[in-house]
Amino acid sequence: MKENVEIAQYRKEIQEEIRRLEREGRFDEDVEKDPPTIVLTSDNVDYLREKRTSKIKAKVANKLGTRFFEEALRKNRLIIKEIKGIENLNKITNGAVLTCNHFNPFDSFTVESIFRTTEPGKSKKLYKVIREGNYTNFPGFYGFLFRNCDTLPLSSNTKTMVEFMKAVDKILQRGDCILIYPEQSMWWNYRKPKPLKNGAYRIAVRNDVPIIPIFITMEDSDIIGEDGFPIQEYVVNIEEPIYQDNNLTKKENVVIMKSKNFEVWKNIYEDFYKIPLQYETEK
């Protein structure tokens, strides 16, 4: 009980921090109280899982991750109420960049599980871009998943990011897919779409692959979690692919694809919650 009370208090503090960052317009900052990030160097990551040990760990981690996700569903710690537009994932023929709003450390499992049920998911892998600290800082079971479930960690080290970009290009060119959170930050159970960064769209344009915009809406269930808050019921909205226009420059395509992605998310938000998208930003 004491632990549950502490978690509930922590969640309340997170909610207040989210409100503060929204007021200040600092949408790309994380709100969790994570320890200082350990820098990821290029010799400590095998992006393409070319080493034998990396392949074995990835196989084990994906099995464990699937069991973890299925157990969470079975115990109603995570509820997927509805999936809309799954046919849009079936339109993927080559590589693609999937974008999704980020509000839970494990929302990638939701996207991954849906992707695996599609036709492309039978032959393609879905890699997930994660923050540096999730890869280098987490110990134990969650750390093992973060490091090995086909993840692509970002890095504050320039040399490592060169290797990251090489791997991203190779993955997309061979026809696999990548999940990117273009909001950059993770805000717990935050329902609004946040302003998007350019990275996902630069990657898509450079590799001439489409963006598949995914926006997860949520509502309170009648089940209360251990933190004292209602478990959320997810509606996963998968929209039509966004392609670049080959008559435009790469820079123009980045801007337009990002704008289209945000407009799609905004429309889903307003249609589902029946309210206009408004931020409490003071400036």
Please describe what this structure looks like:
- The chain has about 280 residues and is α/β, with parallel strands linked by helices.
- It has one domain (about 1-275): Glycerol-3-phosphate (1)-acyltransferase, CATH 3.40.1130.
- The protein has 8 helices and 7 strands; from the N terminus they run H-H-E-E-H-E-H-H-E-H-E-H-E-E-H.
- A 7-stranded mixed beta sheet has the order 1-7-6-2-5-3-4, sandwiched between helices.
- Strand 6 and strand 7 (about 230-240) form a beta hairpin.
- Helix 7 (about 200-205) crosses helix 8 (about 250-275).
- It starts with a helix and ends in a 10-residue tail after the last helix.
- Level-1 CATH class name: Alpha Beta
Radius of gyration: 19 Å
- What is the residue-averaged pLDDT? 94
Low-confidence stretches: none
Give a short account of the largest sheet: 7 strands, mixed
CATH topology: Glycerol-3-phosphate (1)-acyltransferase
Highlighted features:
283 residues; seven-stranded mixed β-sheet; Glycerol-3-phosphate (1)-acyltransferase; alpha/beta
Condensed summary:
By secondary structure, the chain is α/β, with parallel strands linked by helices.
